[in-house]
Amino acid sequence: MTLLGPERTGPGTAAVRVAAVGDIHLGEDCRGLLRPAFETLPDCADLLLLAGDLTRHGYAAEAEVVAAEVAGLGVPVVAVLGNHDHHADQPAEVTRVLRDAGVHVLEGESIVLPVAGHKVGVAGVKGFCGGFVGRSAGEFGEPEMKAFVRTTRRSAALLARALAELSEHGCAVRVALTHFSPVPDTLAGEPLEIYPFLGSYLLAEAIDAQGADLAVHGHAHLGTEHGMTAGGVRVRNVAQPVIDHAFALYRLPLDGHGTGATAGTDSATASTPARYGTR
Ligand SMILES: [Fe+2]
Ligand SMILES: [Fe+2]
Asked: Which pLDDT score is estimated for 103?
């Protein structure tokens, strides 16, 4: 649990404004691509969430490019890594580079940000895959299959614990941030055959068990922005090819605990990097 201060939004603000984007997939040839759009964030958002796949292949040199895009923006930046950020087997180095730039990189952790006199909490984990209810991998058979499913189960347990920390801390708004999807709704547009590799219902079970006002994820480049868990938590797929902007904006009411996050969506304009075949 990390606590941050001081507040950057004055009393009387009725909502927390969450900017979010995932799957920006920056390579070393992308310097400065998103910076002009991100520099508008202090005028329109209270925090920026990065939903993983920030680099193309997970090299520290690519993370340096990401770091330069978001360093010193004037709003807190909270991130999880994605599968691409693991590909070069340097996730610790990628995390270090981002943290050196002031990014709060979460993996089974939570952070509380003060906004307008309220505590706004983010619980983050990369997550993993395995599929959705009725069409999911089971923890059965070969060691490899059991290890696969246990990876997802561990990840969901970490998310549940991080969300529980936010509740214990009395957060007025709680956001679950993952790379993999907790629901199939936001995968609409992807081939059905690959749904099991895009997310897991175990993440949604963790979110519903602990409660959240909004769940944000990426990874599904061909998916759909809006979805919902079985428990009624709103889910947003902010993969950049889906939102087609530098970031999406969500307003979460701050008029009392548990007021929910119906929040209109208002995507900011900016150029969009090239899309990539892998998620
Ligand atoms: Fe991904
Ligand atoms: Fe991606």
From this structure: 98
64 domain-assigned? yes
Token pair belonging to 65: 């490019």
Q: Is residue 277, in this structure, part of any structural domain at all?
A: no
The CATH number covering residue 95 comes to: 3.60.21.10
Domain that holds residue 131: 2-253
CA–CA dist 79, 125 (Å, integer) = 9
- Domains in the chain, number: 1
Cα–ligand 1 centroid distance for 199 (angstroms): 10
Tell me whether residue 265 is in a domain: no
| Closest ligand relative to 82 C-alpha | 1
pLDDT means per 10 residues in the chain (279 residues)?
A: 46 81 97 96 97 98 98 97 98 98 98 92 98 91 96 98 96 97 98 97 98 98 98 98 97 63 41 49
- HSE (side-chain half, CA atoms, 13 Å) at 268: 23
- Interval between CA 25 and ligand 2 midpoint (Å): 7
Task: Starting from the CA of residue 240, give the closest ligand.
Answer: 2
